[in-house]
């Protein structure tokens, strides 16, 4: 999922040349960001929960979460505003505005904000930048980010426990995590980080747990899931390969035939 650079406020007016839904190739959220949808719609899935985002909705996308989303254009247009709350900005904000934080009791990847006049006025103040040719310089961008975060924290003080949590993911059980998240197309470094390990300890623990290396296990697990969806659920290979973690249909078809002795189309019921 593409977010703005760490030190900027990014106003995106995205016009895609493709008609219909698109699936994002990026499936890891590296920094918290505020999302406001201007036009089009989105459906997202984080491995646990499905989300729908419609025009006029706004939410916080949560750092260190896995997400896959599909964009639907309206009249061939998909327009959004993304404002990133990266860690350096948040630490500076916290120095200026000390805040009491409480641990969050939700693990949702998208935290929807209730309708708020101040947020809507804030979005309106950005209109010259996303409808015209004006650009935000870095200093003013930080002021606008600070303004937005102050509005959000005033409306929902519990959000402080989420955005100001700078801890890395804790070490967790590999079996449960990998069986739940193998479909996400992220690097081994990401998997290691999200399970609270260095890459070397992740590979070592993985070998002990599964009896094979992560690359082989992921490929086999994804192919088995693809076989199930095609053979048992009558889904088309072209609708399956991205969902199970492959980037390229031809590579998926080659790997599938090598694993099962038949092409994906040949196992359709």
UniProtKB/TrEMBL annotation:
SUPFAM superfamilies named in the record: Homeodomain-like, Regulatory protein AraC
UniProt KW keywords: DNA-binding, Transcription, Transcription regulation
Keyword DNA-binding: yes
The keyword Membrane belongs to this UniProt entry's keyword annotation: no
Molecular function GO labels: DNA-binding transcription factor activity; sequence-specific DNA binding
A Pfam family per the record: ExsA_N
Domain HTH araC/xylS-type: 172-269
Family matches, as SMART domains: HTH_ARAC
PROSITE patterns noted in UniProt: HTH_ARAC_FAMILY_2
Domain of life according to the entry: Bacteria
The protein's name in its UniProt record: Transcriptional regulator, AraC family
Record organism: Dyadobacter fermentans (strain ATCC 700827 / DSM 18053 / CIP 107007 / KCTC 52180 / NS114)
Lineage, opening ranks: Bacteria, Pseudomonadati, Bacteroidota, Cytophagia, Cytophagales
């Amino acid at each position: 999922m593409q977010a703005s650079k760490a030190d900027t406020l990014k106003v995106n007016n995205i016009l895609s040349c493709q008609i219909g839904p698109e699936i994002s190739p990026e499936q890891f959220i590296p920094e918290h960001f505020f999302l406001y949808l201007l036009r089009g719609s989105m459906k997202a899935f984080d491995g646990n929960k499905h989300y729908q985002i419609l025009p006029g909705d706004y939410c916080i996308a949560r750092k260190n979460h896995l997400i896959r989303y599909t964009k639907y254009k309206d009249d061939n247009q998909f327009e959004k505003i993304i404002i990133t709350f990266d860690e350096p900005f948040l630490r500076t904000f916290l120095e200026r505005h000390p805040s009491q934080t409480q641990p969050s009791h939700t693990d949702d990847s998208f935290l929807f904000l209730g309708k708020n006049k101040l947020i809507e006025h804030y979005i309106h103040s950005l209109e010259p930048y996303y409808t015209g040719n004006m650009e935000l310089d870095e200093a003013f961008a930080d002021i606008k980010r600070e303004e937005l975060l102050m509005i959000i924290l005033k409306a929902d003080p519990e959000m402080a426990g989420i955005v100001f949590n700078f801890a890395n993911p804790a070490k967790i059980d590999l079996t449960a995590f990998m069986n739940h998240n193998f479909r996400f197309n992220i690097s081994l470094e990401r998997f290691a980080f999200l399970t609270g390990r260095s890459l070397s300890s992740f590979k070592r623990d993985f070998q002990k747990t599964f009896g094979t290396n992560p690359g082989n296990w992921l490929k086999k697990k994804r192919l088995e899931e693809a076989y199930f969806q095609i053979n048992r659920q009558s889904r088309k290979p072209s609708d399956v390969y991205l969902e199970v973690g492959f980037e390229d249909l031809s590579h998926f078809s080659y790997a599938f035939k090598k694993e099962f002795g038949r092409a994906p189309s040949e196992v359709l019921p």
